[in-house]
Each structure stands twice: as C-alpha cells, then as structure tokens.
C-alpha cells in the first residue's frame, strides 16, 4: 500500500524498496511514477527539469505544491466551500456570478468566482494559482471544480476531455413533458442575429443532453439532466428547441414567472480524485429561488 504525506511544498511517498531498486534508482522511480502512480508524462518532465523529484532511502519526494502566483486579483465575497483537500476545491457558484473575467474586464468591480477563489486562497495563506476545470453560465448555480496544483490540473483536464467528470443538473421548464426520458441530440451553432445566443443548426457542433422527468408540476415539469457534450447554453437551447424552455430564461423563450433567472442548477458533480482515485460525489443544495419556484408549481395533493 502506498502511503503519502504532505511536507510543505513536497509530497512524500513510500512506494516500497522494490519500486526504487535497480542499477538506476532514478529511472526506476520515473517508471513507477508513470506506471503505478499514473503521473502525466508532461508533469514528470517538468519536475525533472525543476529538480522536483528526490529519493531518500525508501521514500520518494515530489515538489507538487510550490508557491505560485494567484494569477488573478483577489476580490472578497463569502464562498460556500463544498469540498477541499490539497488537490481539489469545489465551490458552489451562486446565480448571477461569472466563473471568470470575460477578457474585456477593466477595474469595474465585477467579482467573478475566480476572483473570489483567489481571495479565499489568500485568506487561508495558500499560494496557489486559480485554475477552474469547467464553467457554468452566469445565471446557472451549482458546483465548480478547481485544481489546486499542476498534478491535479493535468489529471482533471484529461478527465474532462474523456468526459469522465459527471455533471448532473436539475431544471424547471414550462409545460408538461409527456415522455419520461429522452436523449436530445441536436447540433448547436451560433445565432447570427444575436451575439450571445445559440441555436439548433444542421451545421452546428454535435451536442447531446440526457433528460429525465422527475416530477410533473402545474403547467411545468421538473427535469434532471446530464451532459454528454458541453456546448455553450446546451441545456437551455435543447429544452427550448423541444418546446419546453426554462422558467426565467427569456433569451430562449422562457418567462420570468416565479424566478428572475433561468431555473437551472448544477445539483451534483461526480469525479475520481486526481491523486487517490477515490470516486467523489459532491452535491450542491438547491438555491432558495429554485425551491420557491418548485413549491409554487407543485400540484396540490
């Protein structure tokens, strides 16, 4: 069994004498890191270049936690931390907050989730670059995953590319959906008449959303959804296309009845821990506006 312990910027591992034996202990250690630990080759190269691998007896030390700049100015706001360890941070993003600056930002006082995470790291004395792994729309609430070091960043980015990070959403849509389940497979492209809006288009990008009806409400339906692809506004576009836009989603045909933003919430995030391999399921409680809309639309018994 491999044991590990953090010591400052170093992670100390005890892979066993056999893993570090042979004529060339450095080569043996590198082979173990790649084959047994599953270290990304790119990171192994970076660590070797920066003298970030040390062998002492039966112990192997890796410089996985160096002090690095935040990369974005800290702006304080109280955060709801759903999960944290030395490798990962999961934060509940409230509706109305962008995940990151849009590139046109100046000193306008806008607080994004990245700004807030930077302030959290700073307040905790953690010298860590702010690295979000995925995004949510500005008006969608739910969990956002951050990598706290280079090792986690490379592993989690690879999981995203392989679609191995499962993101589950809950939404309240207009109208009563009759079918219990449906796979929505409609390509999504840009709308040439509106800069931000997307639309279903034969020439658009492949997009797949798995939808399941959870409860039929009063002239509304509670649905749960999983993304097979991650196109911009994918859930909103797909549900609007089948005639059931989200409550509050005026861009795609919804009405602001009982909620002032799109009724879409990231309910659950499931992924393998980048270092231990443990399957983690992080749940984010419904925000108040979603709960109020649901209660208002529930059918009386």
From TrEMBL:
Transmembrane helix listed as a keyword: no
Residues covered by the Pseudouridine synthase RsuA/RluA-like domain: 89-241
GO molecular function, one term: isomerase activity
Top EC class of this enzyme: isomerase
Keywords associated with the record: Isomerase
Family annotation (SUPFAM superfamilies): Pseudouridine synthase
One matching Pfam family: PseudoU_synth_2
Tree of life domain: Bacteria
EC number per UniProt: 5.4.99.-
Keyword Isomerase: yes
Catalytic activity: a uridine in RNA = a pseudouridine in RNA
Job of this protein: Responsible for synthesis of pseudouridine from uracil.
Family: Belongs to the pseudouridine synthase RluA family.
PANTHER family named among the record's database cross-references: MITOCHONDRIAL RNA PSEUDOURIDINE SYNTHASE, PSEUDOURIDINE SYNTHASE
Name the record gives this protein: Pseudouridine synthase
Species: Paenibacillus polygoni
């Amino acid at each position: 069994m491999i044991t590990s312990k953090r010591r400052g910027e170093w992670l100390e591992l005890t892979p066993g004498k056999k893993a570090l034996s042979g004529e060339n202990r450095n080569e043996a250690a590198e082979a173990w890191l790649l084959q047994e630990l599953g270290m990304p080759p790119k990171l192994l190269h970076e660590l070797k270049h920066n003298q970030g691998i040390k062998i002492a007896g039966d112990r192997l030390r890796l410089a996985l936690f160096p002090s690095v700049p935040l990369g974005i100015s800290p702006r304080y706001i109280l955060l709801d931390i759903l999960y944290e360890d030395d490798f990962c941070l999961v934060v509940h993003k409230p509706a109305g907050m962008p995940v990151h600056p849009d590139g046109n930002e100046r000193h306008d006082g806008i607080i994004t989730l990245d700004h807030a995470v930077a302030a959290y790291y700073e307040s905790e004395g953690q010298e860590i670059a702010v690295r979000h792994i995925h995004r949510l729309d500005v008006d969608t609430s739910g969990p956002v995953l951050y990598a706290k070091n280079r090792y986690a960043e490379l592993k989690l980015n690879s999981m995203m590319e392989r679609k191995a990070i499962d993101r589950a959403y809950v939404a309240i849509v207009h109208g009563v959906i009759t079918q219990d389940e449906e796979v929505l497979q409609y390509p999504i492209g840009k709308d040439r008449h509106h800069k931000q809006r997307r639309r279903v288009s034969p020439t658009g990008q492949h997009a797949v959303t798995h939808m399941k009806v959870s409860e039929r409400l009063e002239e509304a339906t509670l649905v749960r959804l999983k993304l097979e692809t991650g196109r911009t506004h994918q859930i909103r576009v797909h549900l609007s296309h089948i005639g059931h836009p989200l409550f509050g989603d005026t861009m795609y045909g919804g009405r602001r009845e009982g909620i002032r933003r799109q009724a879409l919430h990231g309910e659950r995030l499931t992924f393998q821990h980048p270092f231990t391999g443990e399957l983690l399921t992080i749940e984010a409680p419904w925000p108040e506006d979603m709960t109020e809309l649901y209660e208002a639309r529930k059918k009386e018994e």
